[in-house]
Task: structure prediction
Amino acid sequence: MNINAATPKSTAGIVWPALPEPRAAALLALQYQLEQTEWWSAEALREAQMNQLGALLHHAYETIPFYRKRLSAAGYQPNKPLTAEIFARIPLLRRSEIQAQGKALLSQQVHPAHGRVTTGVTSGSMGRPITYFGTELAQYFWQAFTLREHVWHGRDIMGRMAAIRSELDDAVAPTWGPPTSMVFPTVSCATLGVRTDVSAQLDWLLKHEVEYLLSYPTNVRALAEASLARKVQLNRLLEVRTLGEMVDPDLRALCRQAWGVGLVDIYSAREVGYLALQCPDHEHYHVQSENVLVEVLDDHDNPCAVGEIGRVVVSTLNNFAMPLIRYEILDHAEVGASCPCGRGLPVLKRILGRQRNMVTFPNGHRHWPSTGYKEWSTRLPILQAQIVQRSLTIVEAKLVPTRPLTPADETEFAAILHRSLGYPFEIVFSYHQKIPRSAGGKFEDFLSEVG
Ligand SMILES: [Zn+2]
Result:
């Protein structure tokens, strides 16, 4: 049943119209508003964003000394409305600053209505991970946009989902999980770790016969190629969903060729939530203006025009624990023209962000690489690491250390890498002041010279 025609879960005894429990009702209330605001004009959206940013900046000014200084220097005055001119004068927030400031970016006083403050670490695939803090309320917004994404793409809530991602075990959950399962009756979601060999992943997908597949573009490409090579079909599959890396246009064509289905991409980041979702009617993206203000800036920090590619700079609107104001997230995007679908949410034609290589074992098995950043970044004096597979048996660990590594440190790093990659490669260490980004500004934490 299409999610747009589905009846929400209801209170006992009430079949129709449904009366959802309070948290689900609040999610639907937010959804109702999002279904209005997505049609607002760009100007109306921008004005509402400035109002929300005004509230957030006021809070940041009052409770975060780092921002008080920065906002004052930009000419911000807490008793005056925030203008676009003042906002544009706030310096960009670099990842290195977030790393250096640490808890100095954390608000000293978050309103109790925003719930507990939680913390997390970004994926290491963008270089050195950053620690971020959010509120339960910000998580709630995350869920609202997850629901919007299902609504936009009219998913069948009786369809079975498969997720192949990092940090997942081979398991089957009885529902899609929150937020969708809070609001609607959904069926199963099968999960599998992305470090599983590609051919074994395909066997697993054939066994589970799912309608939806969610994974990383690199992994989807390998699965589609394996399907074609083995001449097997995923007969029930309706749609591929991707996140976490850039999508090349030819990947969409490959999914159609291999499985006869389209691909829907999600642009999100752990520290900010959803930045943009694919339009229901087109292959480009709509910025999620109710969650973030996205700027695309050129080399002189001026806004890019339609058709130009620039750096993505994002300001979160609802995270009062650690507001990220004009945060340079190190992705690039091409500004798109307004969408024929009629939604006023700004358009990103394409995202030029992370792209990864697969790791290959001597026996030919391949999988999406994990480099164990969570372990080494907390246990060893390493700022940044780039792993380069030089041959089927040798990988180079290019490290930017904060102090020279001891032999014991190297042994520990090697053990983490062996565990994470899933094979006891010979490891060659090299030490660097800095690891350059590839053309286009991407940092690649894993590169392969094999095949
Ligand atoms: Zn559109």
